[in-house]
Amino acid sequence: MINNNKIIVVLPAYNAEFTLEKTYKEIPLDIVDDVVLVDDCSKDNTVLVAQKIGIQHIIKHDENRGYGGNQKTCYDTALQLGADIIIMLHPDYQYTPKLIHSMAYIIANGVYPVVLGSRILGGGALKGGMPLYKYVFNRFLTLTQNIIVWQKLSEYHTGYRAFSKKVLETINYHENSDDFVFDNQMLSQIFYAGFEIAEITCPTKYFPEASSINFNRSIKYGLGVLNTSITHRLNKIGILHSKMYQSKNK
User: Model-level pTM?
Assistant: First the structure.
């Protein structure tokens, strides 16, 4: 805990047996109260590895629900367990768990309610081996999103995120896609609800075992991101009234 805030790390897992233990061993359990792993019907031994290393809360989907569907289960479970701060970390060891301290303290001290680990700040993406086409794609999408949404993030596409309980209890994330665009829809909802977002520099690693989507899925994702940004702006100016932007509290 930090300042009496219960901290839970959620791991949305799919075929992570070769990287899960390495990721888990770097989670700072001096401040993290609990770890939740949601296995999205992996075809490998992810669940067995999770049991072996001692993760207490393991949920296995009977069928693959997609990256977004996995996160929905992660956040629902963390809230049910009484989390005050929820940190989403990919178990593929692409992002270092060593930043959890920094991300959690920012939220626990009331500085920001959301923190993103940015691969773009400091140039960590290319140094870590991000393919050039993905880097260019990331920069183009981020610039376009900032213009349409009227915000200023260094990147919208990181999978390393920390949220206060209030944020997850406010935004209607169950209305989002079960696919990869879920991440962008969440950020859109967070900005729409008036929450501010902090970013910290995050190194990243690209290697064969790290999860990554192929070129065709990247194109689909990019189109979904642009659609999300346009939908955000149309809701802001009152042309659309999408359910995804309605607060859970209403």
Answer: 0.93
Q: Encode 65-104: b = buried (16+ Cβ within 10 Å), e = exposed.
A: bbbbbbbbbbbbbbeeeebbbbbbbbbbbbbbbebbeebb
Q: In what order do the strands lie in the sheet with 197-201?
A: 57-60, 34-39, 7-13, 85-88, 161-164, 114-118, 197-201
Q: Compute, in degrees rounded to 10, the torsion defined by CA atoms 17, 58, 158, 92.
A: -10
pLDDT by residue, tens only, the chain of 250 residues: 899 999 999 999 999 999 999 999 999 999 999 999 999 999 999 999 999 999 999 999 999 999 999 999 999 999 999 999 999 999 999 999 999 999 999 999 999 999 999 999 877 677 777 878 888 989 999 999 999 999 999 999 999 999 999 999 999 999 999 999 999 999 999 999 999 999 999 988 876 665 566 778 888 999 999 999 999 999 999 999 999 999 886 5
Query: Which helix (H) or strand (E) is 171 found in, with range?
Result: none
The residue count for the chain: 250
Q: Alpha carbon 41 to chain centroid distance?
A: 19
Domains of the chain are 7-245 (3.90.550.10)
The DSSP H or E segment spanning 8 is: strand 7-13
Nearest Cα residue to 119 out of 246, 18, 51, 204: 204
